[in-house]
Amino acid sequence: MTGHRKSNVENDMAKKAKKRKYSKGAAKKVERAMKKRKAGTLRSGRSGRKVKSRKQAIAIGLSEARKSGARIPRKKTARKKRSG
Predict the structure, then answer these.
(1) Does residue 75 lie within any of the structural domains?
(2) Residue 43: beta bridge partners?
(3) Does any domain span residue 28?
């Protein structure tokens, strides 16, 4: 009986492994932002300064993808401290 249960768990893990965290559209947006950064034409939002950081380029690509409705995991937010 335990052998049957184990196979179900393995199947669930396989399904979770196959599902994409980031959609293909999100990957395209990030790829576009990275290419723009390499070309030196990627600019940040408000100030309009040239983006040199790889991490910032990825963040801009993900942000654009979120706005267009692509599937992306939620941003991690800081936990509220409990007073007690």
Answers:
(1) no
(2) 50
(3) yes
Whole-prediction pTM value? Answer: 0.66
Three-state secondary structure call for residue 20: coil
- Residue 12: both structure tokens together: 């669930």
Cα(67)–Cα(79) distance, integer angstroms: 24
Give the pLDDT confidence of 15-61 residue by residue, as tens digits: 666 788 899 999 999 999 999 999 999 999 889 999 999 999 999 99
Spacing of C-alpha 35 from chain mean position: 17
Residue 84 is assigned to a structural domain of this protein: no
Tokens representing 81 are 């401290």
CA quadruple 45, 76, 24, 52: dihedral sign? positive
